[in-house]
Amino acid sequence: MPSMLASPGRRAWSGILLLLGAAACSRPRPGDPPPPAPRIVDGGGAWSAATVGLEAKATRAALEQPLSALRPRLGGHRTVAHSVLVARAPGSPERRVEQSVDLRVTSAGQFSAVKHTDPQYGQEVVFAGGWLYSRLRHHKFVRRKPTSAREPEAIADRLHGLLPAYLRLLRRFVELQPAGELTYLGRRARRVRLGLAAKPAAGEPEGGPATRWRKTIAVQELSGEALLDRDTGVPLRVKLAAVWSYVPPAVGPAPTGIPTRFAEGQAGRMTLAFEQRVSQIGNVSAVELPPAAEVAQLPPRLRLELERQMLVGERPVIPGWPKYYQPEEPRP
What we know:
The protein has six helices and eleven strands. It has helices at residues 8-20, 56-63, 67-74, 151-159, 162-170, 304-311; strands at residues 77-89, 92-105, 111-117, 121-128, 131-136, 142-144, 174-184, 187-196, 218-229, 235-246, 268-281. It starts with 7 loop residues before the first helix and ends in a 21-residue tail after the last helix.
């Protein structure tokens, strides 16, 4: 298998794809109300269920929320997502990233999640009983205490983050149009169509140096549909398809592979097919712990993540920690 680190150019391509990767929607049925003609317009005020699906600002905010903001509104539920992102650029092989996520979360915030990225990569995380269990594909779970009260929530947000990431990327090009209401999983939901805006909205794309390439994109095709719970504003099902061009990164000397300049006069092309849906609401049983045989047997005193952060200087060494974890003093 060719190495992804074969050249800075390939590292840049791989970085772009990884940074992004970031059931069919029902067709109109007899009896469904016809979609109103006017598109949703931006409205002021905070995001609330009363305005989601009716005002663009509130609808966009609801669609881009992390799981930690949605769970208190919807309670325990199960969400599944699938995306395929294909990138083509002159002089480079086609790159394809397929991702799937299956996430179960209880009303108390415990969760289990499985994420697959292409056939060879994957991650599984369980948070239950105050313990985090995490493993990569083909490995055993590592059991540890969270390093902070916020860490489990942040991990769940990251695993749930495909939809917010894609929508932030394409936000300037998305036009929202109300399309009536329907029933989904026994709940009334507002339907919103996603289409290509006639003119991109003003404003710069979010992100730092690693996402500078986003400023070069131009979307040619965009379509989709979102169902948002009328009572809570939570997205229940979202389907998004898009095609866009962009200026690909030029091969540069940066060892990180983060593009610092671009191949002017060339154009790459990306194609996205994405769908996310809530498949179960309520009746989410307590998250089960992994079988003992699938958990690595580690020394009981070892605190892997906390010690790693201290060793590499990401956090100060805790006073009273064993001396052999203290950084070495400079020698004369």
